[in-house]
Amino acid sequence: MSNARSHELFINGKWRAGGSRPTLPVINPATEKVFASVTSATVSDLDEALASAERARKAWSSRPAKERGEILVAAARILATKIESAARDLTAEQGKTIPEATGEYTRAVETLEWNGRHAEELSAPIPMGPNRMIVPEPLGVVAAFTPWNYPAVLIARKLAPALAAGCPVILKGAEETPSVAVHIVESLRQAGIPDGVVNLVFGVPVHISRYLLSSPIVKVLTFTGSTAVGKQLAALAANNLQRCILELGGHSPVIVCEDADLPKAIQAISEYKFECAGQSCNAPSRILVARPLYDEFLSRMTEAVRKIRIGLPDDAATDMGPMANARRIEAMQRLTKDAVERGARIETGGACLDRPGFYWPPTILTAVPKDARVLHEEPFGPILTVAPFEGIEEAIEEANATDYGLAAYLFTGAADAQQMMINGLSAGAVSVNYLKGVSADAPYGGVKQSGYGYEGGEQGVRSFQILKMVNGLGSFG
Ligand code: NAD
Question: Yes or no: is domain 252-432 CATH 3.40.50.300?
Answer without folding.
Answer: no
